[in-house]
Amino acid sequence: MPLLNPERALRALRKTPVLLNSYIRELDPERAMNLTDGPGGWNTLEIMGHLNDFETVFGDRIRRALAEDNPRFEKIDHEGLVIEHRYREQDLQQVFAQYLEKRRALIDLLQTLTPEGWARRGVHPEQGDCTVLEQAVNIALHDVTHLEQMARTLELSGGLL
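^ thats the sequence. predicted structure below, dont judge the formating
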């Protein structure tokens, strides 16, 4: 079995909500707002808002790759979304619930794919040509980046690295 395969991608995509929930389920709203990952960095609410917005972006890209022949995906201004969607004014648990609903829908969709569906392609604005499987793996890697960022922000990383 190849290193990158649908089963591994789906397993990885299922892990992020579990870890996020463990980080935020009893998180004091003040800590969610006041702790950042450094000067000018994001707080937990902003990280969660970003993950929620990008769950929409990622899902849309995959649906387009499945429906269109080799679609070109737009570049997203993630810093602009922080301001436009007013992350700091949102409720953390509500944002997480929205994210979770989108993640479940994405997993439900991906579980139905045939090998041909996983091989469908689109053009990422920065990484170029990619399959649906590569997009799913990219989502999981994006998740890890922000899980680590959130752990650091909440002072859970213990300065390991």
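The two ends are 32 Å apart (CA to CA).
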